[in-house]
Amino acid sequence: MEIEKTPLLDCFILKPKIWNDNRGYFFENYNKNIFQKLSGKEVDFVQDNLALSHYGAIRGLHMQLPPYAQAKLVYCVQGRILDVAVDVRKDSPTFGQSFAVELTEENRWQLFVPKGFLHGYSVLSETALVGYKCDDFYNKDSECGIHPLDKTVNIDWRIPAEQQLISEKDLNAISFLELPEIIL
C-alpha cells in the first residue's frame, strides 16, 4: 500500500497494491497495522457503511460535531465517484480549503478524511456503491452539514445542474459561513 498526501493537512489517499491474474484480482482493502505504520495515525474504526447511489447523486457535505466527530476511510466498491473533503478546523492552515479525487472500482483508492472535515461525493457512473469506515458511531444529534452548492466552498461536482440529485435535507442545509465554531 502507498500513501499520497493531498493539499489538505492530515487528509491523504491510500493506494493499494493489486494482484491481477486470469482469475481476477486480489488486494488488501484495509490492514490496521499497515495503515498506522504508513499514516502515523492511530485510528480505531468501529462502523462500516455502504451506500448505493445513481448517476447525478450528490451526497454531502456532512460531518459529525464533537464529541462525536468521525474520521472516515472512503472507497468506491463499484462505479466511479468524485470524493470531496473540506477542512473546517478553525486552527488548521488549510481551513476552508477543499480537495477532490476520483475513487473508482478500477483504481481502488481510498480517501482518509480526518475529524473536523466536511465530506461528500457525487456519482459519476450509472450507479456507485460507496463504502466508508468510521472511527466513531453515528449520532443523529451531532450531525452537521452545509449546502453542497455553497458558493464559499464552490465545489465542482462534475454533474450538470439539471441532472443533480440532492436530498431535501442537503438542499436545506446551512451555508459554510453559518458553520458553528469547530475546534478539534
Short description:
The record marks 138 as: Participates in a stacking interaction with the thymidine ring of dTDP-4-oxo-6-deoxyglucose. Belongs to the dTDP-4-dehydrorhamnose 3,5-epimerase family. This protein is mostly beta strands and 184 residues long.
Helix content: under 10%
Note the main sheet.
6 strands, antiparallel
Please state the structural category.
mainly beta
Give the DSSP E fraction (strand runs of 2 or more residues). Answer: 35-45%
Summed up, the helix count is: 2
Q: Which CATH class is shown?
A: Mainly Beta
CATH topology (fold) name:
Jelly Rolls
Oligomer description: single chain
So, CATH architecture? Sandwich
The end-to-end span amounts to 28 Å
- CATH homologous superfamily descriptor: Jelly Rolls
Q: How many domains, in number, for the residues?
A: 1
Strand order of the largest sheet: 1-2-10-7-12-5
Average pLDDT reading: 94
Spans of at least 5 consecutive residues whose pLDDT stays below 50 are: none
Provide keyphrases for this structure.
Jelly Rolls, 184 residues, six-stranded mixed β-sheet, mainly beta
